[in-house]
Amino acid sequence: MRPFEFIKPDSEASAIELLGKLSPNVRILAGGTDYLVDLKHTADVPKTVMDISRLPELKGIDEVDDGLRIGAGVTHTEIMQNPLIKKYAPAMIHAAHTIGAVQTRNLGTIGGNLVTCVPSMDSGPTLVALDAEVNIVGKDGTRRISLTDLFVGPRKTSLKSNELLTEIIIPKRSLGKPANFYKFGLRKGQALALVNAASSLWIKGGCFKDLRISIGAVAPVVIRCLKAEKYLEGKKIDEKLVKEAGNIAVTEAKPIDDFRASQSYRNDLIAVLVTRTINAAIDLADKD
Ligand SMILES: Cc1cc2nc3c(=O)[nH]c(=O)nc-3n(C[C@H](O)[C@H](O)[C@H](O)COP(=O)(O)OP(=O)(O)OC[C@H]3O[C@@H](n4cnc5c(N)ncnc54)[C@H](O)[C@@H]3O)c2cc1C
User: Fold this and answer.
1) pTM of the model
2) Cβ-based burial of 169 (10 A; exposed 0-12, middle 13-18, buried ≥19)
3) Which atom of ligand 1 is nearest to the CA of 76?
4) Ligand 1 atom 53: residue of nearest CA
């Protein structure tokens, strides 16, 4: 591996300043569980690697005016243990539990998971189903975008090379919203998702309200199943309709056919997982 300079700023402000000066010949390192693997094998070694893993501003999970703020540097283990996540977005705990093994969860951050932007990322579907947004900071200031707008393609986001993902915001309207996440891999532990899915919903007068369905590993990025959502929105809860929504979700995906699973097997999984996440969210919801 070619040598590189290693820097470790001690504040978000100095990280942004350094990114501004050094970009595009700089890469960010958080927990390193994805990037160190890449770095060992790539010919594209940057001039500088900037470690942001200890930046205090990227830590913490707090209730803020517009919702729940999760620092981009929060690890999967911290998510699993946090009382605010347990209270307001427990499906995130289910998702974090499925990521790698203890060591990976202790080091890997939620920000790193989203920015790596592999289609099978396990943090994505639940956050998309909860309408999460992200704050991005660069030398020109802060911009907030919806999480779905961060995802551009496999391993490609809308972040510029001089920008830092600083926090994820789950909006107030989604806090405590009944939601569920399922992942199916080839093993029970340490497996990438063949398909993962999350749904969130409210029930008003026995009907679906603000239903969100998101699936991963079956399209270039984690997606929302807008047609399946529209099909159920406002309708009375009915098992047959939920099953049909699972079938509609299949038409919105483009799963690959590879040595791990055929396209048709993945399609079957989408239908089953989407149906299960909706039914599990219904079970959690207050029925008025
Ligand atoms: C054995 C193993 C098993 C795994 N299993 C799973 C699994 O089951 N499910 C799953 O989803 N993932 C899995 N992963 C992938 C990985 O652990 C996660 O994606 C993790 O959350 C990445 O976070 P990190 O902090 O380690 O990111 P890093 O490796 O430090 O960084 C990843 C990328 O994000 C960029 N980046 C990081 N933070 C920021 C930021 N704040 N702003 C801008 N750019 C940033 C880096 O420049 C780099 O390009 C696994 C990895 C390993 C090694």
Assistant:
1) 0.97
2) buried
3) 21
4) 33
